[in-house]
Every structure is written in structure tokens, then in C-alpha cells.
Amino acid sequence: MRLSFDSRVALVTGTSPTICGAVAEVLRQSGAAVHITADDSTLHDLAGRIGARYHRFDVRDRHDAHEAVRFVIETEGRIDVLIHTAATAEAPDDEATESIDQDNWRAVIAMGVETGFWLAQACAPAMKRAGFGRIVLVASPNGQGSGDPAADTARHALVGVTRRVSADVAPYGITVNAVLPGDIETENGGAREDDGGTNLPRRYGRPEDVAHAAVFLASEQAAWINGQVLPVDGGRG
User: Is 91 a residue whose pLDDT tops 70?
Assistant: First the structure.
């Protein structure tokens, strides 16, 4: 089954060139007009290479998130797909509840939770008018067991955002789903040895593993999937 995004317009956001870049590349290969929004230039070269458009906005800020969406709509006349990849600031391995500082907590929650909500809020009116929309919120990798209370909290909160927003927009032909990645090799290192599970892959996940899952949820074929949370972790849980 080939997923077609011909004549569809997609906005992909995030701070990491790994998952965000992989999502953008898969969408372009599937025919979508792709806009990439980030608050730095790390994804600028990738956008040029794959034929996407790059815009610099700090989407952690509500105003910038709305401006990013408005720019896409003014440029293309529509927005059909939003995929937000919520990579979060890295915390020390021994970060714990009693030691995390306020700045780190706020930075992680802003990118991991608030940004996805502001972007969904900004996309909703245009998607409602069109009677079609796909919103996919991709959590920070390995947040289910990261050892960082902010990252773990952000992942759980993103699930809540997904389910609440999906209920609000479902009558208008819009779906909202979440992807929860496990360990991704470009974020965490190289291949890993089998840890004893007979059905577990002997490697980290790859950015394209997450990208293909997210892009499927953004497709027309996923029209009957809404408010769901899809772990992409090789069965490691």
C-alpha cells in the first residue's frame, strides 16, 4: 500500500534533524507539499535537499506557533497535516524529582506539551473549514523511562492533550493521534544487544521507524483512528 499525499499540505515542526527530518522526507516522497518550522537553522539544509520550505519560528511560544500555521495557510491556501515532533531538552542521567531545576522543567514541558497544543489550536479553524485534517503529536524519544521527571511528565501530558483535542475536532473530519517512540539510535547511540526477549529486535529504533508510523496516522487510510497512542518501541514498552 502506497500512501499518497498528492495535493496535501503538511507542516512538520521540531528541534531535532533526526525524527523531524525523517518525517518531512517521508511526506515529500509521498507527494506532500512540506513546510518545516524550527527555532534554529539545523533543518534548513535538509529542507533544501528534499524540496521542502523552511521557516524559523519558536513554536514553543503561542504567538509564533499561530504565526507559523498562518504563514503556511497564506502561502498554500490550506493546511491538511500537522506533525509535531516534540524532542525535549536533555537532562542528566541522574536527574531526579528532588534535583530538577525550574528552567529545565519549564523548557521540557513547553516543547513536550504546550507546543503541540498551540499548534493544534492554530490548525483547527482551517481544518474545520476544509472538513479534513490530520494532527500527529510525536513525543520525545524514550520518555516512558527516561529517568527525567519532566520528560516523563511531558509524555503523559501529551497523551492527555491528544485525547482531549481529538474529541473536540472529530466531528469535523479531523483526527488527532500520538506516537510514543522508544530508544532511537540517532538520539541514544548505536545498536544494542538482545536483552533476553525472544521477539525484540537487536537494535535501537531508527528515525524512519517513527516517521513511517506518524505519516501513516496522517494519511487518508487512517481516517478511523482517532485519539489513539501508538508506541513505536520494538515491543520494549
Answer: no
